[in-house]
Design brief:
Strand order of the largest sheet: 6-2-1-9
Largest sheet: 4 strands, antiparallel
Distance between the termini: 9 Å
Shape: elongated
Structural class: mainly beta
Radius of gyration: 17 Å
Helix content: under 10%
Length: 246
């Protein structure tokens, strides 16, 4: 985006939803972030829109940081993580280190849903993305390690340990076993991948944007009521692909 005039621009970003697991375990919804940024006429900023996570074998996950799902030996599928949506000052591939470090606003993507081979019952949902911290994935059985949500200072991991940890900008991959594991969502930091359960959500970020008069920057996770794209209503988290608005 090339600024046509000098002034404060309102930036809004919506993260992508995680993919569904085989047993209709939903992916986590994407989050929302907004704030203002001063641009001089002719300045360029770069917009990266997250892709929705998929169901099944996807080595890349949703575009812009979604962690890959892993299909277990029982043959059922999990969902990959949804990608983050962000705006940056430096262009490059989505995972270029300098480009990632130049992000001024991020909406986290949701984690992918999982599947446990012993039952089709219960909730193996991915964790919601966005907010200062993404949400943990879910499982019916406490013994099934879920992907944890990312924060402002570190990525999510797995409740079993650091075997499926995310990183700066990307979610961790699910860990393959008999069951199928959801990937973590992309974000400022990415959510953790799971083991037989749902992946964690990626975190949002508003550290590079400012307020306008009494309107403060905000970041909300995908469990909250967030604005629709046209700002005429609200919705419970973001479904599908991400979105950006200036």
């Amino acid at each position: 985006f090339i600024a046509p005039f000098t002034g404060l621009y309102k930036l809004e970003v919506w993260g992508a939803e995680g993919g569904f697991g085989n047993s209709s375990s939903p992916g986590g919804k994407g989050g929302y972030s907004s704030g203002y940024y001063k641009l001089t006429a002719g300045d360029k900023i770069y917009i990266y829109v997250g892709g929705k996570g998929t169901t099944g074998v996807d080595p890349n996950g949703g575009y812009n940081g979604g962690g890959a799902a892993q299909t277990g030996t029982a043959g059922k599928h999990a969902g990959s993580g949804g990608g983050a949506t962000d705006i940056r000052l430096i262009n490059g591939l989505w995972n270029n280190s300098d480009s990632l470090k130049s992000r001024i606003i991020v909406a986290g993507g949701g984690g992918g849903g999982g599947w446990f081979h012993n039952t089709n019952a219960g909730n193996y949902s991915g964790g919601a993305g966005g907010g200062l911290s993404g949400a943990n994935g879910e499982t019916v059985y406490s013994s099934n390690p879920v992907g944890t949500g990312a924060s402002q200072t570190k990525p999510g991991t797995s409740t079993q340990g650091g075997i499926t940890t995310g990183g700066l900008g990307y979610g961790g991959a699910g860990l393959r076993a008999s069951s199928s594991a959801g990937g973590g969502g992309g974000g400022y930091y990415g959510g953790g991948g799971s083991y037989c359960a749902g992946g964690g959500g990626g975190s949002g970020y508003i550290g590079g944007v400012t307020n306008f008069e009494d309107v403060l920057p905000i970041t909300l996770d995908g469990t909250k009521d967030i604005p629709t794209y046209d700002n005429t209503d609200t919705m419970k988290g973001n479904s599908g692909n991400g979105f950006a608005k200036i």
